[in-house]
Amino acid sequence: MPYLTHPEALDHLLSGEPSYRVDQLRQWLYRTPVLSASDMTNLPIHVRESFSDHLWPFAIEDEQVGDAGKTRKWLFTAADGAAIETVLMGYPKRATLCISSQAGCALACTFCATGQFGFERHLEPGEIVAQVAYAQAFLRQIGMPGVPDHLTNIVFMGMGEPLANLKRVTEALRRMIEEMKMSPRSLTVSTVGIVPGIRQLANAGWPINLAISLHAADDELRTSLVPINKRYPIADLEEAATFYRETTGRRVSVEWTMMDGVNDNLDQADKLAGIAHRILAHVNLIALNPTPLSEERASTKLHIEQFAAALKQRGVNVTVRDTRGKDIDAACGQLRARSGRTKPPPTVGLTIGPRR
Ligand code: SAH
Q: 3-state DSSP: the chain helix, strand, coil percent, rounded to 5?
């Protein structure tokens, strides 16, 4: 399978063919991806046919369209049944792809649907890169009206914790940068705050963007929302964030999901401003999207505006992020490993999902 294969090993796929065919195939796989092997027009038909039914490392099980055609969610299924969700968001000058790094997630953040449904497995580099290639081929060959015909941004904000799958994610990043020729500045890795992973990613040497999902500005509240905070508390996270910025030269951003009556008060805004100043971060506020196993609600519009104003007043760079894909359960925190499963198992409590 081409995408599951290390690019350097492509020759094996074409044994018996002249060597320039490898370059041609590489071009189709990484530079100008196409949806189907039959579109690889400069390859002989017998070559195209030889891998036509395993061009992708997954089957395209479902495709949903939301936001009047500007958001598209794909459900891909790997050979072992693992479900991979990918979301494409189109804008007049941008096309952002939100990709998954794991099927499911082990970190159990209370308000995130992926965490509520547990961990299935790590995705392979080829499975990560193929999400990008598929969306790229879609934009080139089918497209979204009024949207660029190529991806402008890739964010690791789909299912999974990228820094808990660092080795494979690093190889996927390498293929995106070196084989697909994407600018590291157009790539964003989002993390719940795995401190050693942040340092290792910094040392990989690419100026890629790092987003930290903070959501709470003191350890007590943060541990109740993001359990891994117990292992990597905020002070350690701040140090790692600073190391990341100093090593890569990239400003870090902080993600803050706004939950009504939980993290939308002035005290949190005040502490968050302190953190943002210390690590020189930009803050993104996102209204909570509803998930099956959490009772939390989104902060009101008014509270979000007041929170943003309080941050601005304290000199923090802040953006309120628009939500895409809510109508197709494709918004932040709504992706989950088994799309068909709409209800939690009956024995589960209200806020914390099962570990499986
Ligand atoms: N594990 C990584 C990447 C996946 S989550 C991380 O935690 O960063 C991508 C973003 O969506 C994170 O900022 C996450 O905190 C946020 N998110 C999770 N659940 C959400 C929800 N229900 N509503 C809004 N944002 C959510």
A: 40, 20, 40
